[in-house]
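Interim report, section 4.2 (structural modelling).
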Amino acid sequence: MIVTIASGKGGTGKTTVTVNLAAIAPVSDIQVFDCDVEEPNSHIYLKPENITTQEISTMIPVVDKELCNLCGECEKLCQFSAIALIAGKIMTFPEMCHSCRGCAMVCPEGAINEGKRVLGSLLEGKNQRGIELIWGELRVGEAMSPPLIKQVKQRINPEKFSFVDAPPGTSCPAIETLRDSDFAILVSEPTPFGLNDLALTVEVLKKLNVPTGIVINRADTSEPTSSVQGSMPDTIIDEYAEKEGIEILQKFPFSREAARVSSKGLLLVDEMPEMKKLFQELYDKIMSRLDAIKEKNPAKQAEGTMS
Amino acid sequence: MKVAISSSGTTLDSALDPRFGRAANFLIVDTDTMEVEVKENTQNLNLPQGAGIQAGKTVAESGAQAVITGNCGPKAFNVLQMAGIKVVTGIQGTVKEAIEKFKQDELEFSQAPNVEGHWV
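Predicted structure of the assembly:
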């Protein structure tokens, strides 16, 4: 099963939820994927050992100028201006290339060879709890993260249980990460920004057909103490979730202590018993949702195991 | 000689468009006759990326030997260089003023792009 933790808005607590859920999971053979390849940080908390690093690159066209007859078919095909015929010369712009290989396919002279552009690194390690962490690190200066995210996700073993930490936002990197998930946990916070970006992500997940639940982080769980509006609990996410019919899986209260523990690279489930209880409840809720999904759609599960 | 100027309008009195790749129009001006040919650049305005490359191509195909503009990024600069077109950057005012300055040799050609490329 693949459970992806996403948010829309950045800094809501995706990684905190991911690493603590992975740490509390009683099942063995857990895989955690950090797909926030622009700034991965799950490894700070999960502390994998014996890390191996592999360079990941993508195909770019290299034109054999001896064979090229300047017909311009490649340029006509390319939607990204990565190859262009300028003043009787063929020019390539590797940073624009989306590696579709179309230019090589349409070239009647077979003049386009495969070169490579380094996207970044794929890192893997296992920690003392037995959690396998796989993550990507985008090369500084590289603008396209989805091809690297794809490579990270290729390591997903359908036999195992996977938690996937998504990048923020709702554009290509987040979509690439969320694709093919069995369930998505959306971590939000009760602020107008949190709600706005949560709603955008919910729309994306409807299109991707991924079932969803919401976790409210830094929730205002205080009881209303007076009639002053500012002291009332902030319920904007609750109201939205009710309107959309999305389950609120858990609420984590605002906690200075949690911030302190996290800033030291420690796990909340190890350091704070009250947080451990909340994560355990969250974990159980996710499991029961997954059981329901499996029951409803056993075919998809079988398909996932086969691939 | 023919000079291409990024322009917000279609006449010599139009304001020079500071953007090269996403300029509204290119005015191809013959500096001897002051004859103006308008090359629309609207198709590039809507491109998610690669506007500089395509604009460079438009200018190269127009037969212009020099470009006068505000900002020119690395990819557009490369294209223009490949086509043997010289580039003047950092110019403001009307197209006419730019041409007059150019004719009096008051403009200096750039040796490098003057702005960074946009994110892909």
